Amino acid sequence: MSTPVPPPVSPRPSLAPAPWGFWKGLLTGAALEIPALSATVWILARFGVGNPDATFMEIVRLTTVFAGIAAVLTAGGIGRLAAHAAPAGRRRAVWVAARAHAAAGIGLAIIAAIPLGHVPTSPTGFIPIAVAGVLCGAACGAVIGLVCGGVAPVGLGDVWTLAKFPTTALRTLLSPEDLVKLGGAVRTRTTRMFEGIFEPAPKPPEDEPKGGKAEDAPAPKADG
Questions:
Q1: What are the domain boundaries of the chain?
Q2: At what angle do helices 176-197 and 56-85 cross, to 10 degrees?
Q3: Rounded Cα–Cα distance for residues 221 and 211 (Å)
Q4: Cα distance between residue 60 and residue 112, in whole Å
Q5: Whole-angstrom Cα distance, residue 30 to residue 221?
Q6: 8 Å CB contact between 113 and 54
Q7: CA distance from start to end of the chain
Q8: Taking 80 as the threshold, does the pLDDT of residue 199 lie above it?
């Protein structure tokens, strides 16, 4: 009597994550993280948590220097996380990204607030910063999840075409009007960011000559 052979079990189709998750998250974070963190620290300072004398541009400069790299790399990781959650739906990707970035927002908000001084002396003084960081991180994470959580029809051939002929591939993906708008927006944002970071300091007042100004010298007396 022959042993019955069980029917072959067909493997479940694997759902691949959305492509370009890390890089889309990185670019979204580069445009979103620094302004959002700076606005969070500025609002906290208006409520007495932080340095109330710091201007918004000073906060932007210090946030860029001390928290910029960490924020951008965190956004890239959140984008990758949202891309892996994309097969379950865009709403699921937004929820996963917002939840993960809410936890990361606590650390980013503290890193952005410390260089400005007026740091809380007690551990409970960091609670408002942590709450604001959660709200800021959740909002940024939701935007990153919305951008990176969509499954786009990009295959290996499209990636090779983009690497070999980038101009042709971009013209296929975007219309000329969209390319002009995208280039203008990137140029404007980059110019404003670098002008704010590297804004020259005001010139010191010119020293007056030791003998005083020429017009202050007494007029010579006439003879006779």
A1: 21-152, 154-200
A2: 140
A3: 19
A4: 9
A5: 71
A6: no
A7: 149
A8: no
